[in-house]
Design brief:
By secondary structure, the chain is of the alpha/beta class. The protein has 11 helices and 11 strands. It folds into 2 domains: about 35-260, 3-Layer(aba) Sandwich (Aminopeptidase); about 305-385, Sporulation related repeat (Alpha-Beta Plaits). The protein has helices spanning about 5-15, 55-75, 90-100, 135-145, 155, 180-195, 210-215, 230-235, 240-260, 285-305, 355-370; strands at about 35-40, 80, 105-115, 125-130, 200-205, 220-225, 310-320, 335-340, 345-350, 375-380, 380-385.
Length: about 375
């Protein structure tokens, strides 16, 4: 086979795979830098109360600054940055890039929710991912709509249309390298926020949120409550209520900081795109390409499956406490197992001898656990992650 064709086939093969590099922080690594993002601001008021007197941008700024003050007071060694400290408009892409440029350890975006149904109430926390329900989509449409206030937003956000649900397919191609840690941080936030002043726990959700899209560190978006609901609105309209929210966020930060510095698993997975030098155009027999790729895939699977101490599983989520086997989330799933890394319980389902079998079942599992991905387990240790 001509060398040029071989190179093109190799390029096709490599384009089907990415190399995932995983690492763990050793104990004693401090959490030093936090970016707090008060949602909306300036010409973008965010969600409004029915009488339009209470504005999301004011609530988020107050809670964010109070939250940061609590961190500074107890942990003066931690650097706290804000995407805004006054009533100004900050484009969504600038918020996460600000955190990236600072090499922040975590990014927390603070918002207030709203819904057409006035009965909707409670606190919820989002991590990057694909929305699985209409309610999740509604939140994403609302939070992302602010990009239309920016000049030439189609260019900035790569033709992303926040008002077109079909446009959200773009997020199915984005894999957050820090998804597990984002989920753990979100878990702590929900654990504390539900203690009041708003006590309805709407849980942790995934959604295609532009503000989290390009963040390179554990990143979450917190919805403090519904400004459209009279009970939630009452809590967030008082100074004591907003102070309490800030205190609960601080407790969540403190719990996460302790686990982080105790040696929690910090996912440094980053897909490395394998590229080949540009070749001159040459007609290639597509059947040869398909045959070589399939043979290479089978060979790779065989190398792993022949080793009896390795198997493929599908990791569904990671939490900071052991769950009961009767947990409703495990219903109808088989081979439910967990691997304890540091203080993090990483739950998985299935046990597959080959990668292709795991991939065949992944689409089904993702319908229930949107952030699911394949792991390779050896001697009950995760040795590789395949997104």
């Amino acid at each position: 086979m001509p060398m040029t064709i071989k190179r093109i086939i190799l390029s096709v093969f490599l384009s089907l795979f990415v190399i995932n590099i995983s690492a763990q922080t050793s104990s004693g690594i401090p959490l030093r830098r936090v970016v707090i993002d008060p949602g909306h601001g300036g010409k973008d008021p965010g969600a409004l109360s029915p009488d339009k007197k209470l504005r999301e941008k004011d609530i988020t700024l107050y809670v964010s600054k109070k939250f940061g003050e609590l961190i500074n007071k107890k942990y003066p060694e931690v650097e706290v940055y804000y995407t805004r400290t006054t009533d100004v408009h900050v484009p969504l892409d600038k918020r996460s890039s600000f955190a990236n440029d600072l090499n922040a350890d975590i990014f927390i975006s603070i918002h207030v929710n709203a819904a057409k149904a006035r009965s909707a109430k409670g606190v919820e926390t989002f991590v990057m991912g694909m929305h699985k329900s209409e309610s999740n989509l509604e939140v994403c449409l609302l939070e992302n709509s602010v990009i239309t206030l920016e000049d030439d937003y189609h260019t900035t956000y790569q033709n992303f249309d926040p008002n077109n649900p079909e446009s959200y397919i773009i997020f199915s191609l984005v894999q957050s390298a820090s998804l597990e840690q984002s989920m753990i941080l979100a878990d702590y936030v929900q654990k504390h926020l539900k203690n009041g002043p708003i006590r309805v726990d709407r849980g942790i959700k995934q959604g295609g949120l532009v503000v989290l899209w390009r963040a390179t560190m554990p990143a979450i978006l917190v919805e403090l409550g519904f400004i459209s609901n009279s009970e939630d609105r009452k809590a967030m309209s008082t100074t004591s209520g907003k102070n309490k929210m800030a205190e609960q966020l601080f407790k969540a930060f403190e719990d996460f900081k302790k686990q982080y510095e105790a040696g929690m698993s910090v996912n440094l997975d980053a897909p490395i795109q394998m590229t080949q030098p540009e070749e001159k155009t040459q007609k290639v027999d597509q059947s040869d390409v398909k045959r070589v790729v399939e043979e290479a895939k089978k060979g790779a699977e065989s190398d792993i499956s022949n080793k009896s101490n390795k198997e493929y599983r599908i990791q569904i989520f990671a939490v900071n406490s052991k769950l009961s086997k009767s947990d409703s989330r495990f219903k109808k799933e088989k081979n439910i197992k967990y691997i304890l890394e540091g203080k993090t319980y990483k739950y998985s389902v299935g046990a597959y001898p080959t990668l292709s079998q795991a991939k065949n079942d992944l689409s089904r599992v993702k319908k229930k656990f949107n952030g699911a991905f394949i792991i390779v387990v050896e001697n009950e240790k995760i040795v590789e992650k395949i997104f």
